[in-house]
Structures are given as structure tokens and as C-alpha cells.
Specification:
The chain is about 30% helix and about 20% strand. The protein has two domains: about 200 residues, Beta-galactosidase, Chain A, domain 5 (Distorted Sandwich); about 375 residues, Glycosyltransferase. The protein has a 15-stranded antiparallel β-sheet that branches. Strands 24-25-26 form a three-stranded antiparallel β-sheet. A two-stranded antiparallel sheet has the order 16-17. It is an alpha+beta fold. α5 runs antiparallel to α6 and α8 packs antiparallel against α9.
Length: about 600
Amino acid sequence: MPALIEDYSLLGNCRSAGLISRDGSLDWLCLPRFDAPAVFAALLGNEENGRWRLAPSDPVEEVTRQYLEDTLVLQTTYVTATGKARVTDCMPLGERNTVVRVVEGLSGETSFEMDLVLRFDYGRSVPWVEKIDPLTLSAVAGPDRLILRSSVANHARDHHTVSRFRVCAGERQTFSLSHQPSHLPVEPDCDADEALERTITQWQVFTARCPDVGPWSALVRRSLITLKAMTYAPTGGIVAAITTSLPEHLGGERNWDYRYCWLRDATMTLLAFMNLGYFEEAEAWHEWLLRSVAGNPEQMQIMYGLAGERDLHEYSLPWLAGYEHSQPVRVGNAASQQHQLDIYGEVADAMSQAIRGGLPRHPRGAAIARLIMPYLERIWHEPDEGIWEVRGGCQQFVHSKVMAWVAFDRAASLAETEEDHERACHYHEVAERIHEQVCAQGLDPQGKHFVQAYGSTEMDASLLQIALTGFLPADDPRFLATLARIEERLLHEGLLLRYDTDSSCDGLEPGEGTFLVCSFWLADVYVLLGRHDEAQTLYERLVGLCNDVGLLAEQYDPRGKRMLGNFPQAFSHIGIINTALNLHRAQCPVQARAMACGRKATP
């Protein structure tokens, strides 16, 4: 049985990542990259689907854990009746995919057990395991090889590799597990101590550049580390989460693969990096964005693979029972082929924010904009599946139209910076036509507040973007009425649902948790309105949901008081960063973005 989602911590090396539970079990790890088949898949099944547990064999009386200051090096301390010991876990940064685990005795004597269950291809394939020497074994299945090296002997037991040992105060034992292609000679052993020290230094050098964000500085640094760990270093792409199929509703079907890169994350990710002064990371993400969307604008997708791959075919893994029996377990994401208009606004806004933030202009950027905008001008009036990737058919979603307006508004501003006044004027005209239509057709029958889609009575948290993007001022009566209606309909024990799955036709079974990034958007709207006390109260409620090592999932169930959805979630950690900056800085990013529009349309 896997642990609660919030009982996991993150290990990563900017190429792949894993989840390790409080009881020392590495239950999820994909190698050699985030979206590769898992070699440990117990998270979505049971221990026979692969795991690596290293923990005391005697009953544990107390367990505490923390990351070494400003790093992704995890330390877990166990207290038993006979002793106290610490396990240090990390994935050293670099081109090699290795997990290093070090056991140290702190006091008394502690008995430990290692149980390594190697299963390739998402827990389906049992590898061929053989000893290279008494302390080294090799496991091969098809193209993959894993090499276990340890300072204690191990032996086979029912397709597991196990060992038992004791550590007294001052004693230590080391373990490493490395991945490599199976057709290559076995790579030499790495120095575990040197790799550990080097990784600590690299993370601390990275976080040392983070500016002060007042009382939330430590939270922001932890979220920054998390975003960095979810970045695929060779390309700059950032995955939405490192997991697939962690459910948005326990026992339900809302289980999706998030190990890909979404275009709609672009603007908020860029703002998070740039506003913290991490321009190298921002530029790498920006470059990934421009490479991925290059080509025929009619073939532009809402998400891509780590290197910009476009084939994200969705299929299920029937041999995995699913997290707490939530099925199906999915690989790939069919939403990659959906029609979603908002992505054009996200790309245009990201390009605009990159220039405003001082990133160098990319020669391809203007050319891509000139291809995309005529295509968007032809299709912006069409229905789409929207930001929430519904599977119940296309609608005229208001948020999608708002983001189409954003696309033309930002494109007009970019054209003006290039002194292309004729093009800028045309884009402004299109933006005003979209604005007029949204304000005419996107309101409820009484014309007081915006609704989820034309002709609908449903509410949607994405309508908060009306103010956050500058479509309307935050104090516009129509937006204030929309905000009040969102608070009335979607606030669930102080946190926002993205929409009501019980009454909305999204093509799926009803029921899910509160979508955390929506609550961060609400806090940002409060900042725009000068409701700072409410913004800070909501922010502190949100960050209070982080687990003991500062991580957040996609969703939270206030009644069950547990996390839901894929974990850790980039959107949630971007929210931690950007809302902290909005609360801390007088010239806050949310105001700058809302005021960045080229020319406000007035219906």
C-alpha cells in the first residue's frame, strides 16, 4: 500500500525524479528521464511493482525528515528502542542518473533492512539480476541496466534483493543505484561521499542568488528548488509534475499523466524565474517554448514532451491497480490533441513578458508571432475544450476568449516595439472585437457577472484571469460581481474549486479536490483590489498545506485533509513564488502584468 501523497518527498537531478516516503521507501522513479517508464512503480500498485526501501527493521518510535538547508538532499532520522540513525538520500546533479543513500548511526545501535525490488516498464518486467562482485549487482531488462553498489552484502529472496545490517554511533554504510544503457560496458563506480558533497554545494550556490521575500523567503526558495528539479536540463522544458495518475478524486477516473510541458505554464513560470532574478532558467524555458511551437500554427499543441516531442499518445497500464485503486493508470495525455484557444494568449503573453523582463529577443519570436496571429484571427470565435481540458465536448469558454484577447493585445504591444504601426493597429482592432463579444455574450442573463461559457450559468475560477491579465480593471463592476459569485459558488472550506464538477458537463465522473493554483489566483486578485489582509490570510492558509518538507500537490481535499492529484505540482509552487512576490513587493508582478496590456478596450 503506498503512502499518503503528502508523506512523500522529492529527489531529483534535473533529468529525472523520484518520490520517497517517510518510511524510507522509494516508490516512484522513472529513468533515464521524467517521462521514461518507471523502474519503481509501487506508488501506483504495490511493492511487487518496484520499490527500494531502506529503513530500520525494528519498530520506529519517531521519524523526522528535512532537506539539508537550501538543497534537494533529504535527511530522515529514525529513533528506535535501541538507537538513533539517519538516512541521507539524493540524486547527484549531472549527466549520470544515480540515487545515493547513506546510513549513519547517531547513537546506540540501530538494525536496518534494505529491500530492493527492481521492476522495469512500469512494474511489469522482472529483470535478469546477477552479481558482478560480492558488493555489486547488475539488473538488465531490454535496453536498461541498473547497477546496485553497496558497502554491505546482499542476497536474493523471491525476486527481491535484501540485506540486513546494524549501525552504531559513528558508523555509516553507503548504497548507490545507477542507470545506464544495457548494451554499454558497466560504468565505473562513483564516489558517493564526493557526489553528495558536490550536490549540496551545487544546490546551495543555486539558491544563494534568491532575493529576500520577507517572511516567505524559505518557502520561495523551496519552491524554486522544486521547479529547478522539475526542469529537464538538456532542453529547459519544465514538467507539470513528476508523476502520472495520482487521482484528483480517490477511486475515480480523473487520473492524468503530467510528465510533460504545458504551454499555459509559460507566462507564470517566466514571471517566477525573472522576478527572482533567475534569467538563465527563464531564458532556457523561453527557448524551449520557441522551439516547441515552431512550425505550422495549425499544428500547435497545448503541451509537448521534454524536448518538444508531439506524439503523447495516451494508453493505460492494466497491470497496475492505481493509487488507492484509482483507475485507469494512464501514460501519455490525449489532451495534447485538444483544441484550446488560450494557449495562443499564453505564448504571446510569455513573449511579451520575456521582453519586458529583459531577456534577449529571439530572432524566431517575431516570425512565429506573424504566423500565429493570422491563424488565431481565423479561429478565435470557435468553441474549444478550454483550460481545464474537459472531455465532454467543446464550448465557448469565456476564459479562452479572454486569452485570445490577450494574444492580440500583447502582439500589438510587440508590434509597436518593432515600430510596425500598421500591424499594431490591426491587432488592436481585433482585440477590441474580441473584447466587445466577450462583454456582450460572456455575461449571465442579467448582464451582471461573467460565466464559464457563453449561455452558461456555471462559474469557473479561470474567470479570475479577467483581472489578472488586464482584460478589465479589477474594480470593474462586472468583475467585482464575478468575483463575488466565484466566492459564493466555488469556495469550499476557504479554498477554490476550479468549477463545480457536479453540475458542469465535463465528460467525467463528478468529484475532485480544490485546485490549489486557483486559490493563489484569488489571493493575487485580492492584492490587485488592495485587500491585502485577505490576500495574506489566504496565502498563509495555502502554504500551511505544504507537507513537512515544503511540497504541494495539484489539489487538496479540505474534508479529508489530504493532498490529491499529481505531486509535486509546478503550478502550485509557481503560485507560492508569485503570490509571495505580490505580497512582499510594492511594485508587485501581478500589477505589472495586469497593466501590461497595450490598449484597454472599452465596450
